[in-house]
Amino acid sequence: MKDEVPTTEERVANLKGMGSSRKRVEDVRFTQGRGNYVDDIKLDGMLFGDFVRSPYAHARVTTIHTEEAMKVPGVLAVITAADLEPLGLHWMPTLAGDKQMVLADGKVLFQGQEVAFVVATDRYAAADGVEAVEVDYEELPVVVDPFKAMEPDAPVLREDLEGQTEGAHGPRRHHNHIFTWEQGDKDATEAVMAEADVVAEEMIYYHRTHPSPLETCGSVASMDKVTGKLTLWGTFQAPHAIRTVVSLISGIAEHNIRVISPDIGGGFGNKVGAYAGYVCSVVASIVTGKPVKWVEDRMENLMSTAFARDYWMQGKIAATKEGKITGLWCHTTADHGGFDACADPTKFPAGFMNICTGSYDIPTAYLAVDGVYTNKAPGGVAYRCSFRVTEAAYFIERMIEVLAIKLNMDAAELRRINFIKKEQFPYNSALGWEYDSGDYHTAWDKALNAVGYDDLRAEQAQQLEDFKAGKTRRLMGIGLTHFTEIVGAGPVKNCDILGLGMFDSCEIRIHPTGSAIARLGTISQGQGHATTFAQIIASEIGIPADDITLEEGDTDTAPYGLGTYGSRSTPVAGAATAMAGRKIKAKAQMIAAYLLEVHDDDVEFDVDRFVVKGAPERFKTMKEIAFAAYNQAIPGVEPGLEAVSYYDPPNMTYPFGAYICVLDIDVDTGEAEVRKFYALDDCGTRINPMIIEGQVHGGLTEALAIAMGQEIAYDEMGNNKSATLMDFFIPTSWETPNYETDHTTTPSPHHPIGAKGVGESPNVGGVPCFSNAVHDAFRPFGLTQSHMPHDHWRIWKTANGLGLHS
Amino acid sequence: MIPANFEYHRPSEISAAIGIIQQHGDEARVVAGGHSLIPMMKLRMAEMGHLVDLQDIEELKGIEFSDSSVVMGAMTTQHELIDNADLASRLPILREAALQIADPQVRYMGTVGGNVANGDPGNDMPGLMQCLNATFEVVGPDGRRSIPARDFYEAAYFTAREDEEILTKISIPVPATGTGYAYEKQKRKIGDYATAASAVMIGNGAASIAMTNLSDTPIWSEAAGTALAAGDVDGAVAAALDAIDPQEDMRGPVEFKKHVAGVILRRAIARAQSRVG
Ligand SMILES: Cc1cc2nc3c(=O)[nH]c(=O)nc-3n(C[C@H](O)[C@H](O)[C@H](O)COP(=O)(O)OP(=O)(O)OC[C@H]3O[C@@H](n4cnc5c(N)ncnc54)[C@H](O)[C@@H]3O)c2cc1C
């Protein structure tokens, strides 16, 4: 038999490490229906809880009649705020430094607010119990418009804050005002505006929508009265943070709380915060001594759990006649609903909205954000974006287009002459960020070439002529976007949530036979962590990814971390994984040197082994080293091979991308059809290209939904008009266009493996791209701004307003 | 999203079904495919103590063809409208319309009888049946009677069918060969009810026009059909638009709906005309 020595390439391929399009290991279980979600958890004697919710957006709750409900067979308890008050649990802290009612305490502030929690032996009895609870309401005047909420005589929404002039983020200047957050240089920016050749001004509204993950929110609480230990399964994007918060508000010692996030069916920011259902399931379990499950239905999810966006962004952009941007000004009115339950790092009440200078070298800028209470559901979470980054990207990418119109310039060229140049990185933006790396011009030219930009413009001009000549009723729009994201929160020096530093962690244990288990402080909701993090370890320490188990989500076993949202897992936990791997590699090097009887410095790492420098035939594989680590007495070296790393990132990472969309609009029906979508993403080092592509496809489809129809809409009375999937748009394969994906690679200089994070880029870049395409189609007829979502009737209305129907 | 308690009945004879309904009165309702009724029950907008499932009644199934008509049992599924080749050759508009209803999963369960009996202005089959001049047969405690589709709809969820009657058959006259047809529907997405939809039949000196989800009942406009038969497309559209009364909802405001109603109708007319052979 021939002695087959694997080549280096074969050994690299065998690892399925970074750069390999390894198939997702999770999918074996998901595609066979073998996932284990919160609602799959069934415990002996488990009870069910369900909410009585307010039909009114603003009302006083005078009496709650529970007698009839208690008569329903199977109903065991009806919990109200009065029951929670002695425990101090009728209100809970929000992640944004505000507090929120767990159950209506005297009044309700939005339709769908939790009023009472019915506990019963099964779901059906609980639902019947909910029907039987009668609540007396006294209706109060409703405010759904944040500008009206700030009028002097607007109704007082938060009576609990009456007279409180200082909020969690500084002074409050009105009874419905939450905070003002200012960044940049106001005076200098106003001076630039006053002197500029050209100033374009526009109100850019990014409407309210909702992350609407496939799996709604839920929890199962089980208080073991014998051991005093509380186990809480739930749809948590940040299980450790939930453990700490539960401990702080319930008084249960943290070691007696075990929080488990099992498989999670999508999060997109919806599952970062704390919900009344979690608290009520815990209380009900403590009271009854039995496990209690709460799982909301789709309507409850859309009506009461965290929404996203709802930013009114008044903008001014100044430039020279030639199109060089000299300044950017933005005032945002942020509609937070009845409680400020955003999930931003504490020092950033408007998230990273100050990334709104985008990809451009804008010397002077000013941003102010006013947070406002209204009678809508609370939230304001980062729906597949780093905190408020999609709002910022939408704002600047619309303002660039508005400026291009004012200058009568091509918007691609306007972008090109204003991009931050490659040699300017690291780049300090006018609003306070240090961009780590970028090469925008290369990406932009590659994108324009790939779609044949000039030809597209020529075709568009022809179609416009045909339209004017009455030969077609369709207009062609070309949407451009160059976005810069800011992800990977973040450095503990300026990023914390409720005082919890936003580092993350990884612990790796190598088993004696050379396979391994790794645990992280993050939690996958479909991103494929079990696949990609194993690939990082594989490349770092030379053990095949297939031999590495990855675990997340159980606070009793995983190291402490702040969870998964804001594209932070790869930038932060991915870095921790590489660093833990390097600790293991360092020890492995000592062991290898001992086994090979040479000095530590005389061996070097080679894919899956340490070799003697200059004598590659003398080596020890990682498998051999692992076995020796446990089973051989090595002088001066402790047995075992494991490491843990807690990574506090020195900076954020700044992924970017160039997206181009081509669509056709039927001006008579308002329908838009996407004929082409090209997405170039630069997320630094690419760990698994196939997973990146999957993330981009998914994120673009969400972006399509948001831009083209998805919204949470309220009427004047505060009734939610979009609480079912009939009206809340989630695209199916039928509505989803084809996507072409592409990339450039500009590694992050400060990240151990140069990776930047990609999960959210397509949502951040996709929304302005679709929207810009719609606007572009109408540009020849004088349109500068029309608000999203661009559903049929709104597009029709735009066409109608421009006289295209006469 | 959990319905209130109910008793479930599954008779195999029409008379038994009627008996159960008579016994429980208002408290009882028949269920066919359940894809309109069960969502209403889950929302607790419909609460009934007794559900009478029609699935086991053989008499309500099957499609019969004669030279002049097609007679469908009420329990014919919407999927069968797509799948049945004989039907597609005689009444291709049924297939064209059924393909625009909901999605395959709904169509496997949802029935033609349920769609026309439901009385929801959003349903596509009622307008279509009016366009085709179909007749519905109902059976009640007092026997059988026939009601023309064009006389069946009174208001949203109110029809000429009495509570104790069951819709058993739908018979549709087969149009003369060479008749052009079209079912045109604008909707926001798969699974959505129409923003505006219209059914058009034209040929051999006759024409028929009906509109869906633009009033609280389907709208069949005799004037529109007469104008179209005379070759007056503008007159037909004007007459149809005159007859509708759309309401604002998340699909859009009234002026938008009126406008697209005209656009969709013109497209349906054009396609139907192109198929006249
Ligand atoms: C997601 C979704 C999307 C949909 N989209 C569309 C669409 O685009 N267009 C459309 O037309 N429909 C649509 N539908 C409705 C669907 O076509 C239903 O199947 C249909 O409306 C009702 O038929 P069914 O057999 O399911 O009736 P059921 O839901 O069982 O019954 C509906 C009503 O009719 C009564 N009924 C049923 N059969 C009889 C009978 N034989 N005699 C007397 N009364 C009877 C019932 O008592 C009930 O009141 C959609 C449904 C869903 C869930």
From TrEMBL, chain A:
Keyword Nuclease: no
Domain of life: Bacteria
Aldehyde oxidase/xanthine dehydrogenase a/b hammerhead domain: residues covered: 32-141
Enzyme class (EC, first level): oxidoreductase
One family name in Pfam for this protein: MoCoBD_1
SMART domains membership: Ald_Xan_dh_C (SM01008)
UniProt keywords, alphabetically: Copper, Metal-binding, Molybdenum, Oxidoreductase
GO MF annotation terms: anaerobic carbon-monoxide dehydrogenase activity; carbon-monoxide oxygenase activity; copper ion binding; iron ion binding; molybdenum ion binding
InterPro entries in the record: Ald_Oxase/Xan_DH_a/b, Ald_Oxase/Xan_DH_a/b_sf, Ald_Oxase/xanthine_DH-like, AldOxase/xan_DH_MoCoBD1, AldOxase/xan_DH_MoCoBD2, AldOxase/xan_DH_Mopterin-bd_sf, CO_Mo_DH_lsu
Catalytic activity: CO + a quinone + H2O = a quinol + CO2
EC number in record: 1.2.5.3
Cofactor or coenzyme needed: Mo-molybdopterin cytosine dinucleotide; Cu(+)
Keyword presence, Signal: no
Function: Catalyzes the oxidation of carbon monoxide to carbon dioxide.
The protein's assembly and partners: Dimer of heterotrimers. Each heterotrimer consists of a large, a medium and a small subunit.
Name of the featured protein: Carbon monoxide dehydrogenase large chain
Organism: Shimia abyssi
Classification lineage: Bacteria, Pseudomonadati, Pseudomonadota, Alphaproteobacteria, Rhodobacterales
From TrEMBL, chain B:
An annotated Gene Ontology molecular function: oxidoreductase activity
Tree of life domain: Bacteria
Signal peptide: none
Domain FAD-binding PCMH-type: from-to ranges: 1-177
Coiled-coil regions listed in the entry: none
InterPro entries: CO_DH_flav_C, CO_DH_flav_C_dom_sf, Diverse_Substr_Oxidored, FAD-bd_PCMH, FAD-bd_PCMH-like_sf, FAD-bd_PCMH_sub1, FAD-bd_PCMH_sub2, Mopterin_DH_FAD-bd
UniProt cross-references to Gene3D superfamilies, sorted A to Z: 3.30.465.10, CO dehydrogenase flavoprotein, C-terminal domain, Uridine Diphospho-n-acetylenolpyruvylglucosamine Reductase, domain 2
UniProt keyword Flavoprotein present: yes
A Pfam family per the record: CO_deh_flav_C
UniProt key word Flavoprotein: yes
SMART domains: CO_deh_flav_C
Keywords assigned: FAD, Flavoprotein, Oxidoreductase
PANTHER family: XANTHINE DEHYDROGENASE SUBUNIT C-RELATED
Protein name, as recorded: Carbon monoxide dehydrogenase medium subunit
Organism listed in the record: Shimia abyssi
